[in-house]
Amino acid sequence: MTAVITVGVARETAPGERRVAMTPETCKKLVARGARVVMQRDAGRHASFSDEAYTDAGATLVDDAQSVLSAADLLLCVQPPDAAALGQIREGAALVGLLAPQADAARGEAIVARRLVAFPLERLPRTTRAQAMDVLSSQAGMAGYKAVLIAATLAPRFFPMLTTAAGTIRPSKVLVVGAGVAGLQAIATAKRLGAQVEGFDVRPETREQIESLGGRFLDLGVSAAGEGGYARQLTEEERAEQQRRLGEHLKGIDVIVCTAAVPGRPAPKIITAAMVAGMKPGSVIVDLAAETGGNCELTRPGDTIESDGVTVAGPLNLASQGAVHASEMYARNVLNFVSLLLDDKAAESGALSYDWNDELLAKTVWPERAASQ
């Protein structure tokens, strides 16, 4: 009898996490590839995917997480299982998700102890070939969209210009800090809501992208173009000049959406307490970078505060607030990545196929391994 690869999905356990790593759509495609799919009941409920939809797609449902963890050759997740759950995964199995193994010593030790082949998707090379697998980009898009909706809710002003019997209402002035995927989505969303939108990024090559979405590029005369499409850290002199010019500009801004990040490091502090103090009462800051410390000095991750009449919000896991579409995008990204492990060779042998000469696998796997392994 030919061996069959088992793909497992357990319920997410991180507080507030509503996404799921497999949708009925991607489940059906995995089953069509010859995989056996085992899911814990209600794994997709918070993302509005019913158990019935999964069984119709060919999944086998089980009541407890341990039945999934012990059976899976390939385990899919959004956020990493805790150390106790990792200890229940079948030894030598593959684990795919946003794992951040180096952020938690116990987690990393459990992965090594169980000899898991872990693929933290945040390590995926950002190449043209990898775009269809890029979970960071797909989830950042939802986060940028939600951040603007939160800002519009908190702001005591209309975003669009309105002509009413009571007079003309001027449009809100929105500044988006950072023009990565989240920032560009924020710019597009604020523009659709009718705001007057500016985008600020220390990478000059983002000007064209910001302007293509109808925003105005805020040029403060400081460039931090880096490698791989990311920003480099600014020198102290560059930061001082940037902050001086930015502080003056913020006095006329109604809403700031912060999205700037440096991979593997705390978020750069761009909006100082002094800048916030200089803003108009009723202004709003939504700091999408709160999960890595925030771009604003006053940001408290997970909280919304008021300082001298300015509201500062530090929402966490914004992508989870759009769980349906975020899960659909995430699951498709994951399917495209695990397809590298489920090639014809895997179908014939009934075992996952690891081509360590493929840079997408070799540069994503943790701990790193040599191509000959």
TrEMBL record:
Residues 152-314 form the Alanine dehydrogenase/pyridine nucleotide transhydrogenase NAD(H)-binding domain. Keywords: NAD, NADP, Nucleotide-binding, Translocase. It catalyses: NAD(+) + NADPH + H(+)(in) = NADH + NADP(+) + H(+)(out). Residues 8-143 form the Alanine dehydrogenase/pyridine nucleotide transhydrogenase N-terminal domain. InterPro entries: Ala_DH/PNT_CS2, AlaDH/PNT_N, AlaDH/PNT_NAD(H)-bd, NAD(P)-bd_dom_sf. Its EC number is 7.1.1.1. Belongs to the AlaDH/PNT family. PANTHER family: NAD(P) TRANSHYDROGENASE (PTHR10160), PROTON-TRANSLOCATING NAD(P)(+) TRANSHYDROGENASE (PTHR10160:SF19). The transhydrogenation between NADH and NADP is coupled to respiration and ATP hydrolysis and functions as a proton pump across the membrane. This is proton-translocating NAD(P)(+) transhydrogenase.
